[in-house]
Design goal:
The structure holds 3 protein chains of 3 kinds.
Chain A (H helix, E strand, L loop, with lengths): L12 H17 L3 H26 L7 H18 L4 H17 L2 H6 L3 H20 L1 H4 L12 E2 L2 E2 L2 H27 L1 H11 L1 H6 L4 H27 L9 H14 L5 H16 L5 H17 L3 H28 L1 H8 L4 E5 L2 E8 L10 E4 L10 H7 L5 E4 L18 H15 L5 E5 L1 H12 L6 E5 L9 H6 L16 H11 L8 H9 L2 H9 L6 H10 L4 E6 L7 H5 L12 E3 L6 H4 L1 H17 L8
Chain B lengths: L2 H32 L6 H16 L7 H25 L8 H24 L13 E4 L2 E4 H23 L1 H11 L1 H6 L4 H24 L10 H14 L6 H20 L3 H16 L13
Antiparallel strand pairs in B: 1-2
Helix pairs in contact in B: 1-5, 1-8, 1-9, 1-10, 2-3, 2-4, 2-8, 2-9, 3-8, 5-6, 5-8, 6-8, 9-10, 9-11, 10-11
Chain C lengths: L1 E12 L2 E12 L4 E4 L6 H8 L7 E6 L2 E2 L16 H4 L6 H7 L1 E4 L11 H7 L10 H11 L1 H4 L11 H14 L4 E5 L7 H16 L4 E4 L3 H7 L2 E6 L2 E7 L6 H9 L5
Parallel strand pairs in C: 3-8, 3-9, 6-7, 7-8
Antiparallel strand pairs in C: 1-2, 1-4, 4-5, 9-10
Classes of the chains: A alpha/beta, B mainly alpha, C alpha/beta.
Chain lengths: ~625, ~300, ~260
């Protein structure tokens, strides 16, 4: 089981609640019935577009019969409620399954075909439906359609009264219900199978996803909701017209889907309101309205294929970048004293190829017994994480630590160039060179461990030794990344761009210790970290020369120590124990009892003692011969 | 059924087939070269008819058929290239080109259709018959217009076929259709060839529109039915080579003609779609198709 | 002046980067080889050199001309914006081919529905060797006598070896100044392989410098002046002709003794 945050933990809850509440109280504030009419239409088309998104966006089925299915829903309502006199409420409910049944006829050709052919077949299917409707004029009214369909009422209260308030709330309930259900489906096992089939059909099948069952379910579920929407629409406009099969309504719904963004469910819902209001406000323009809407669609497709949802995402990223870099700038000045108290020395800002980096250099001019030590902190942390080591080793070693770009009080970097293991090692090299540090030990924690291995494997002879903690070395990325870590843990959060408040606490607690006075600064740094640093690091995993690191661990003559908490929640301890270590201190990983993911922080005494012993052994004999 | 009515239905089917062949070949040229389906093809057909009417008809400029056909050819070729530059070119290197261009060509069709409505109004128009009189072959009399249509369609298709098979540009176009990357690496100007292919397709659509306009009334939504027919032909026949839509068009024309005669007007489209769906389900690449996309 | 110069070249398939920071210079008249495990980015690098893929960073300078436009991928700030509309392609394979750098990609399928003769007829590149087709064609026939009999066959009816011959011929018809041959002998029988290797040798002897990728070091060593070992998206070693070890030693060098 993968970590799968519930809805309230993902960031969508608050905007959603606000929107729902606004829509719910809207009729109490405005009683203009025309505006309500527009909102009712928007809500109907929100269901149509969102349900289409399930098959089109999530399923990757280029199903162009969806709008025709909407029309079938309208006709189903008309025939049931008018011709057979079924209760209108029941007729709406029945439209869903009827349309789902009609849609399931498409599954056979859709299974046999792909890409362009699916588009053509579904368009042909909607043409067949259209032909059936206009040819069976005794049932459907032919080209003139059906009029005066029954309207919704309860106990003689007609829903169109009081400014259509009844219809408004029915549409509201239907929209919230359908969109909510669609959202849950996309997050269910079915939703994952749908996406898996879209992304890699054969792999998904090999993993046991049944293609025809999933495709059938996709079509049927998306048709069910559009059928309900059609039934309701029929009861509202009280006309079933074959015009709905035409290119005009297809273009309208398509524009909603695209402007909203494919594969997002929420995007089309927002876009439905915008496009319907826009389209209705241009109703007086005649043919120009269609031309303008078409131009809008083309412009969105050409310039901004991500649609509205893409705008929302980019604004969010921009906001996070601004917030985190402002936070860094503020802390750089305002909290200088606090950090200085921890490290005991003023930090310096060093200009590197990847922006300004905050560095502490403890005891640069003093004479030390041992070689210098470079500390590299982990994902979403900061240089002060090593405060216990600073205190312990400062008398005997020169100590250097810096904040990675996007972390601590360093600058944010450019996501493409800066946020990856190679660039981090470049920065470390640059800083060591600028400070004139020679032959240091490199101690890396978690992500910093990868940085340390990358740095030292470039030129092992230039380093006295390397220590990783909370890191599992890789040979093949990303496969070994999955094998080396515990998938049940919250490691997924380490690559997540946006964290909610709760996820921030969760990540920090699992990576270090639950929040306390001592660890508060580490928790605070998760919020400061540029989310892009977490996200882009993952996309750049493949360009790192992992086998070079593994060769160094296996055959190199640089002294290596692997020190992990024996209860580290992120690591797969067996994977690490089975690695082919060569010149590794003690010949095997050193477990720190109770260290969790940050043993140097949670168990400083044990960790420092082990680290000191390793340093001594490595200085004495670089090949760490196990003579003892 | 008498021999006369059989031959009458047959000749009607052949005329339909010839027109469908012209429409469908244009569509197939774009599909096989650019790998996309042009939903504006119907609007191109209508636009060609309107331009032809504007130039040739006595109510408008009144310059006659030769000027009308040449103007349609030239204007539609240019319009096709312009259309391709705006609606297709931005997606040429995208992975989602198929879905994206379905959407932009649909939007393009809406724009063209409404623009035609604004320019020429909703009133139906007709291009005068290209040739008058009737020609009797055996017991059946063919209208001169029909014969002229068939001959001209054959000439146009023959010319297009020659262009693709024999000229350097045509061969390069086929090369791009079959393997874009290899063509690029040979130094072929792929964007230019794409534009030419689209222009050729639009010109063929314009010609088809001109001919259809001489036997039916033209209105802004006049392209919808030809588009569907061309779509059926192309899917039904596949696009293995330049000639496959032509055979398929003849089959479709004949089936349509006979269905209307025996079952009635309403059943013809349903029959054709059913035929297409069956062929697709059994042989997705079409009746004459290969798996490989070619021209 | 060097014939081909790569400066700090990186690239990949968006969003995954495949190779990074490649610096390489080929002087006029030199041939070089690439050797390395499959899937480590050799072919992606070649595709970037010939412009099929746009480079992420860096420059490709061929014959004194820069083949790419300036700027790099990192300048694209808005992730959802379609930059292809406002900025022209960073690199165009047409320009590269017309400058005389011809790439014969790995497993080239060419144009299945066209005949060999038709394919060779459109192969001469505008501004390079057009007008001299007859002479070029003779050279090609001399190199691959087998093709003469198959001129009227469609390419999809040819065997893998014959296709590869057509692909190389198509490249030669473009009158290359430098030719990239990406695994020309991939998946061929030993006999055909030998025939092709000889042909490649003749091409080299006729004065066309090569960038050659192959999995057989012995074959490479005969033809090239320098060998680049390529793994994990980087040039890990540069070996002059005299330093190239035997195949087995090279494998050990790349993969360690464990692989042997």
């Amino acid at each position: 089981m993968r970590y799968d945050p519930p809805f309230h933990l993902t960031n969508g809850l608050i905007p959603t609640v606000v929107t729902v509440v606004l829509l719910a109280v809207f009729p109490f504030v405005f009683d203009a019935s025309y505006l309500r009419h527009l909102l009712i239409l928007a809500m109907v088309f929100a269901i149509v577009a969102a349900s289409w998104d399930l098959s089109f966006g999530y399923g990757g089925l280029l199903n162009f019969a969806h709008v025709a299915l909407f029309a079938v829903g309208i006709y189903a309502y008309g025939i049931l409620a008018k011709t057979y006199g079924v209760n209108p409420w029941l007729a709406i409910l029945l439209s869903g399954p009827i349309v789902a049944l009609v849609a399931s006829f498409m599954v056979l050709p859709v299974l046999r075909l792909d890409g362009m052919y699916v588009i053509l077949v579904t368009i042909a299917f909607s043409q067949i439906l259209y032909q059936i409707v206009i040819s069976q004029s005794q049932i459907t009214g032919g080209t003139s359609g059906m009029v005066t369909l029954p309207m919704l009422q309860i106990d003689g209260y007609r829903f169109v009264k009081d400014g259509k308030i009844g219809y408004y709330y029915t549409a509201f309930v239907l929209m919230v219900g359908s969109v909510g259900a669609l959202f849950l489906i996309t997050r269910s096992a079915l939703g994952r199978s749908i996406v898996a089939l879209r992304d890699n059909k054969y792999y998904a099948q090999a993993r046991g996803v049944s293609e025809w069952k999933t495709r059938l379910a996709t079509l049927a579920v998306s048709a069910f909701f559009v059928g309900i929407a059609g039934g309701f629409y029929g009861s509202y406009v009280r006309v079933a017209s074959p015009d709905i099969f035409g290119i005009g309504s297809l273009t309208l719904v398509l524009s909603i889907l695209l402007v909203g963004g494919l594969g997002t469910i929420w995007g089309p819902v927002i876009a439905a309101f915008i496009i319907i209001l826009l389209s209705e406000s241009m109703a007086s323009l005649g043919p120009w309205r269609d031309i303008l809407i078409a131009i809008l669609i083309v412009a969105v497709m050409i310039f901004y294929p991500g649609g509205l949802w893409g705008v929302v995402q980019e604004l969010r990223e921009l906001a996070q970048n601004m917030r985190s870099s402002m936070m860094a700038r503020y802390r750089r000045g305002a909290e200088r004293a606090v950090r200085q108290k921890i490290t005991g020395i003023p930090e310096q800002m060093i200009d590197t190829a990847h922006g300004r980096i905050a560095v502490v250099d403890i005891g640069p001019s003093a004479q030390h017994a041992g070689p210098p030590i470079l500390f590299l902190h982990g994902n979403s942390a900061c240089k002060e994480a090593f405060q216990n080591q600073f205190a312990h080793f400062r008398d005997r070693h020169r100590l250097i630590a810096f904040d990675l770009p996007g972390h601590g009080v360093s600058d944010n970097g450019s996501p493409e160039q800066t946020y990856n293991v190679i660039a981090y090692a470049d920065i470390a090299e640059e800083i060591l060179q600028k400070l004139g540090v020679e032959r240091p030990f490199v101690v890396g924690w978690s992500l910093g461990g990868y940085n340390a291995l990358e740095l030292t494997s470039r030129n092992p002879a230039a380093y006295s030794g390397v220590v990783t903690t909370g890191t599992s070395p890789l040979t093949v990325a990303p496969d070994d990344f999955a094998r080396g870590h515990n998938a049940k843990s919250h490691i997924i959060l380490a690559g997540k761009q946006y964290l909610t408040g709760r996820e921030t606490v969760t990540l920090a607690s699992h990576a270090t210790v639950p929040k306390s006075d001592k660890s508060a600064f580490l928790h605070r740094n998760v919020r400061r970290t540029d989310g892009r640093a977490r996200y882009y690091m993952i996309t750049k995993l493949t360009v790192v020369d992992w086998p070079r690191q593994m060769r160094m661990l296996r055959e190199g003559d640089i002294p290596v120590a692997i020190m992990n908490g024996d209860d580290d929640p992120f690591l797969n301890h067996r994977y690490i124990a089975d690695l082919p270590f060569g010149n590794v201190w003690k010949g095997h990983p050193t477990d720190i009892p109770g260290g969790r993911h940050a043993p140097f922080f949670n168990q400083p005494e044990v960790f420092n003692r082990e680290l000191e012993a390793f340093f001594e052994a490595a200085v004495k004999d670089r090949t760490l011969r196990r003579s003892a | 059924m008498s021999v006369e009515s059989f031959l009458f239905v047959l000749s009607g089917g052949i005329v339909l087939g010839a027109l469908y062949a012209l429409m469908a070949s244009g569509l197939a040229v774009v599909w096989s070269t650019l790998g996309i389906f042009n939903f504006s093809h119907g609007a191109f057909i209508a636009l060609g008819a309107y331009i032809g009417w504007q130039v040739s008809n006595a109510e408008a400029l009144g310059l006659g058929h030769v000027a009308g056909l040449s103007a349609t050819l030239v204007v539609m070729f240019a319009a096709g290239i312009l259309f391709q530059q705006i609606f297709i070119r931005p997606f040429e290197r995208k992975d989602n080109i198929i879905a994206a261009t379905v959407i932009t060509t649909l939007a393009g069709a809406t724009i063209l259709q409404n623009a035609m409505l604004l320019i020429w109004g909703p009133r139906a128009k007709q291009i005068v018959a290209i040739a008058e009189g009737t020609i009797s072959i055996g017991p059946v009399a063919f209208s001169g217009n029909d014969i002229a249509l068939i001959v001209m369609v054959a000439l146009i298709l023959g010319f297009a076929g020659w262009l693709l098979a024999r000229t350097r540009t045509g061969r390069s176009m086929r090369a791009v259709a079959q393997n874009r990357q290899a063509a690029e690496l040979m130094g072929l100007n792929v964007p230019l060839l794409y534009a030419l292919a689209f222009g050729l397709s639009a010109a063929m659509a314009g010609m088809a529109g001109y001919f259809v306009g001489s036997i039916r009334f033209i209105n802004p939504t006049f392209g919808a039915d030809p588009l569907m027919k061309a779509l059926i032909v192309v899917i039904f026949g596949g696009i293995a080579r330049f000639t496959s839509p032509i055979y398929a068009a003849l089959i479709v024309g004949l089936v349509e003609s006979f269905t209307i005669f025996y079952l009635g007007l309403y059943w013809a489209p349903a029959m054709l779609f059913a035929m297409m769906t069956v062929v697709l389900t059994i042989k997705p690449s079409g009746l004459f198709g290969h798996h490989q996309r070619t021209l | 002046m060097s014939l081909l110069e790569l400066r700090n070249l990186s690239g990949g398939y968006d969003p995954i980067q495949i190779f990074s920071h490649i610096d390489l210079t080929i002087e006029a008249g030199e041939s070089i080889g690439f050797f390395g495990p499959n899937g480590h980015g050799k072919s992606t690098l070649m595709k970037t050199i010939s412009g099929v893929l746009a480079p992420w960073t860096g420059d490709v300078i061929f014959d004194g001309q820069r083949m790419n436009r300036v700027g790099d991928r990192g300048s694209r700030r808005w992730r959802n914006f379609n930059y292809d509309v406002v900025t022209r392609r960073r690199m165009d394979p047409k320009t590269v081919a017309r400058a005389g750098l011809i790439h014969v990609p790995e497993g080239n399928l060419l144009f299945p529905e066209m005949t060999v003769a038709e394919t060779l007829a459109i192969a001469p590149i505008a501004g390079r060797g057009r007008g001299d087709e007859a002479h070029q064609l003779e050279l090609v026939h001399a190199l691959f006598p087998r093709l003469r009999e198959r001129l009227k066959s469609k390419i999809r009816f040819l065997s893998g070896g014959e296709r590869q011959m057509v692909a190389i011929s198509v490249g030669l018809m473009g009158n290359p100044k430098l030719m990239i041959l990406d695994e020309p002998t991939l998946g061929l029988s030993p006999k055909l392989r030998q025939e092709l290797c000889q042909a490649v040798g003749q091409i080299k002897a006729s004065g066309v410098p090569l960038i050659l990728i192959d999995q057989d070091v012995t074959f490479l060593t005969e033809l090239i002046d320098r060998l680049y070992l390529f793994d994990h998206g980087r040039i890990s070693r540069k070996l002059e002709k005299s330093e190239i070890p035997s195949h087995d030693d090279l494998m050990a060098m790349l993969f360690g003794d464990h692989a042997a």
